[in-house]
Amino acid sequence: MTTSQPDNTPDTMPEAKVSINYEDPPTKPPPLLSTGVLAWIRENLFSSPFDAALTIFGAAFIVFAIVGLLNWVISQGDWFAITFNFEQYMYGRFNTTEVWRLGLFALLVAFTAGTAIAAYFRRISPVFMLMLAIIYIPVLLLPAIVNATIALPESYVVAGNMNVVSGTVTEDPIEIVAFTAQGGETVALHYADEADNSDTDLANIAGFVDDASNALRTAAINRLANIARFIELDEDVQIDAAALDEGEAGLFIPPQRDTILREYESLQYTPDEDQLARIAEIEQILADEADLREAIAAEEEMQAALPPSVPFALEQVSETDGFGRPVTVRISDYSQEGTLRVALYNNYQEVATQRLDIDESGTVDVTFEAEDIPGPGYYYVYATIDDVPRARMDLSFSDPSAILTPLSEEERAALVTERGVLLQPEAVIGIYDLNNVPVAITITDRDGNPLPEGTQTLEPGGEAVSFEIPEDGWYLLQKEIASEDEGVALLSVQGLYPLFERTTGFQRMTDGFEISAPIPRDANNEDYPFYKLTENKYRGERPLGDYLRVYLSPFFTKTMFRVGSSGGISLQTGLVALFIAGAAGYFLARMLDRNSPQQVPQRNSRRISTQLLLSIPFFMFLAVIGADLLALSLLGAWVAYVILSYFIGLRVGNVISGIQLLAVSLVMLVIGAVAMYFAPELIYGADSSIPTIVATMFGSAAGSRLPITFAVILALPGLIAVWYGSAQQSSLTRSALMQRIMIAAGVAIALFVIPVLYNAAVDVNRDNPDAFINIFVHTDPRRWGGLLLAAFITVYGIILAFPLGIALALGRRSELPAIKLISTLIIELVRGTPFIVVLFAGVLLIPFANPAFAEIPDIYSALAATIVFIAAYLAENVRGGLQSIPPGQDEAARALGLSGWQITMFITLPQALRAVIPALVGQFISLFKDTSLLAIVGLIDLTGVTNQVVVAQEFIGTRKENLLFITILYFVISYIMSWVSRRIEESGSGSARRI
Amino acid sequence: MAVEAVDTKKKADRFDEPIIVVEKINKWFGDFHVLRDVSLSIAPQEVVVIIGPSGSGKSTFIRCINRLEEHQEGLIQVDGIELSHDVRNVAEIRRETGMVFQQFNLFPHMTVQDNVTLAPMKVRHWSKDQAEKKAMELLNRVGIPEQAKKYPGQLSGGQQQRVAIARALAMEPNIMLFDEPTSALDPEMIKEVLDVMKELALSGMTMIVVTHEMGFAREVADRIIFMDHGRIVEQGPPEHFFDPNVEHHPRTQEFLDQIL
Ligand SMILES: Nc1ncnc2c1ncn2[C@@H]1O[C@H](COP(=O)(O)OP(=O)(O)OP(=O)(O)O)[C@@H](O)[C@H]1O
Ligand SMILES: [Mg+2]
């Protein structure tokens, strides 16, 4: 119901249009095309012709790029280099006996990630679950499925009593080859089918090939390629030569001609007589063909020149069947004067011509002799006057089916190819008479004792032979030609797979099966050649099945992370363990949250995940650097000492004067310094010395005691803690405080004294890795590498750069000109220098500062340089954050009576840091990526590993694969980090809450 | 003029020493002379409302009292302490005076409770328990105890301003300074803030309030000061300003005509 007063009466009441709408229309769903997937596609992909074009172009580009890349990945890439260097990529050459520490640390990180997910996400989103499934399901299921359904590809070996030649390479087929096999496996051999038919099949072999098989394969490939190229050149060369004969410019540019002709010559081969005869025949056919084409062209020209109406009559006057007899044609009713020419043609060839002069009118008979018309053919007559064609007539006995037609394009090409082939070497399968000789095959154990099957002979056209392997170990495969004739056989073998030599033994490429026994030796005590990876690579276009079976499946299932000298876990196991650790963290945090207060449902989980997160650098220290238990105990004692000093400061702060306080703090300093001074000697004994670096840095000789300056510096935090404590107000009662003082003192003394007593009781050997105290034995930094190194530099770079960056930011805002100048100088200097230069400065210049620094491992110099570099950028970020804080904050804090430092610490800095969190994460990610530059200063980070891998003999030529792998690794890790940071930001816990 | 009449009306007992003494202070921003020979003395428990056109120096003046701005000439004494270059005096005066700003200036990264407890703990060295107890008491007083665990961004403007008042009160100041506490608020929120301020005035707090809320001034103020061009042009009890029959300084009259 609409009440509208008045209705459309502008004339009567122009200015007062009052309308009240009481009608409440029902809601209805939006039109179909405005919601859902279709709408999304329409709006986002095809909203304008330009957008549509871009969409299509972009999609085409993506498909093109991905298809190309995938194709290469599956059929070409040699991923074996990644599988067998994965360990290096993860942690360089970290002591294998200590790898378990890294494993535990990785589990801790996963566990922490699990708690963080529980703490910062309401619910796990379906997208996240989907991502997990996409990652984990293939990892778990694919290897099993692939191994069950796809057979390993066959290996090709050559048996023969003659050399196989391919280009400049000459291969002598190996008679006895050593290989490893597992008990219960079958080794089966048969003639390779590819060698039976043609070189094309031989060239398409895909599988592991030994050197001789590869020579056969490449010989076939080269021959086919040469033929193709020769044929291509042959045509052009002929055309060019013909043109040059006629004095024309020719097909080739003069400077090129020589090169092309030289290539042409080099591709040519001297044929034998039969071949020469056939070549001559083909050349004749081709020449006739060329003539025919010319004649046809001439005939067509003449036909075209005929007038539309014939100026005279042309008729045949003799019998219809004219073969072997003369034939007469009559020309009558002509009305022109001139020279009449009558020509008889047979199949475009002029066979006879008669000329006579004619006057203005009359009739003329022209007779062609019998010998001009010998047999069936396609005959016709042309009449010309003064050489201008006037009439044409097919003779009655002409047989149209006899018309010659030129060769079709294909027929011609076939002839050209045949000629090219004839000018080329013989087929490879022919040269070696492949697979036409019997082969005697024996498999023996490493000592030369044949397996029960004995020697079996493979006959052409006969059955395959097979052997059962009784137990794990080395075996020898013997293959001899069992006849007097020369010959070569290409065998395809099941159960023989390339081996790779590692320090621990010989690993089988296809599954990582490892034998640590040495290679068997022959009578001369020399190693038998073994089925080595480098000499038996996978060659040829690889089908998807082989890719999955040979490369992908072992990548997940082979033992990747070796622990100590034996055993280890596969990537699959590792990923599953990480998942379980993550899930455990997640569910533990969720369980803890049951007890969180209602208003802050995630309080407990956030607390624990934050604590875990903060503890990660410490555990990273333990896992990566390591320190023996005595040193750790000492570290604990030091921490307890600092805490003790703080409590003492709290206790005495209000009750004593400044002088007395100074005395107390000095006492603490002396106690600390004395303890530090003697600690190394007490704990490790007088005969072990502290690191020279520490000694020389502080100007004392290396000895068993700490340099006194160093001891005082280590004790200084105690003094500061007393002062700091004295300035604090505490709600603790006096007795509670005393209790704490006693506990801290007890812990400090206990942690200090226990190792001393232990050392007195047990003869400590710091070099013995099995000693209990060495549970976190110190590792050699030069052995850290790969992802571990990148993570180490990234984590410690950021953590240590943080205080420095904040200090620089505050320094730059300081009102003290000296501090401001120094801070500004450092920031601008570093920001004006590329990271790589800062790195070089760190690694090369730090040793200059003090000779003692020369002993610092490069990784620490690089870390120092990284810290300064990151700090400068961080400082600018933080400064920006500080500037973005409204001045009202500072005013309000000042009005409340907070001091300048308090305002910075409690008000401005926390807000500034929150505001710069996105920038920090960006910096974190970019630092992680920038660690790739560490390779340039000689550290083996991911790129460093790549550089080392691709020069190793086994992996030459795999640079592309390695670079692609680290690209993926960098991308995945950076992407995860940025995704996590985005989610944390969205959850609101990281962002500043603005009024 | 009619000052004595006001004194008899309210709080007749405050004839002791003035708590704030300002003598002939001058201040410049660069060459711009913002405060010119301003003198004022305020008795304990007195409520002074300062009005005046924009740019007349009202904010600058009260900010001088707790040294958010530094004056260049003259003398300011608060609670017997002279404001000088001595940092300790500044800190002490700030402990005695609370200030409430037009833009609230709450600390956005802390909960309401932490906003209130921060200064007592860090400046007065109270224990956490003591500070929290005080904070809850004050949040009760300003009427928002249930918001203690929220962040400022989650509160309405009026609630935020009440938190700001509680925060200033947590330091147990003797003097409260208000710089246009309601002018950033929507009309429906002004009243809740003014009610808190009225309650505070009745409890005997010494207050200096810059505001254009004339209703509040009429009801609560002991004295109204009209400033223009950096000087005190006219002062007197509210009746003086609201009596249409009184003759004012022409500038005062012009200003009053505009806002009444
Ligand atoms: N930091 C400063 N630097 C320079 N000039 C300033 C500064 N602060 C204020 N002023 C100027 O001093 C004058 C007085 O400012 P003040 O803020 O005290 O005025 P007000 O009376 O509070 O005005 P309003 O009612 O608009 O708040 C204004 O002209 C202003 O532009
Ligand atoms: Mg103002």
Briefly summarize what is shown.
Chain A has 995 residues and is an alpha+beta fold.
Provide an overview of this structure:
With 995 residues, chain A is α+β, with helices and mostly antiparallel strands. Chain A has 5 domains: 96-151 and 553-622, no CATH class; 152-189 and 435-552, no CATH class; 286-402, Immunoglobulin-like; 627-778, no CATH class; 783-994, MetI-like fold, CATH 1.10.3720.10. Chain A is built from 29 helices and 26 strands. Chain B is of the alpha/beta class and 260 residues long. Chain B is 39% helix and 23% strand. Chain B contains 10 helices and 10 strands. A 6-stranded mixed beta sheet of chain B has the order 6-7-8-3-9-10, sandwiched between helices. Chain B is globular, with a radius of gyration of 18 Å. Chain B starts with a helix and ends with a helix. Chain A binds chain B through residues 599-600, 728-731, 886, 888-889, 891-899, 902, 906-907, 910-911, 914, 992-995, and chain B through 66, 68, 91, 94-95, 97-99, 101, 103-109, 118-119, 121-123, 125-130, 149, 151-154, 160, 164, 167-168, 171. Bound molecules: adenosine-5'-triphosphate and magnesium ion. Residues 58-59, 179-180 of chain B line the site of magnesium ion.
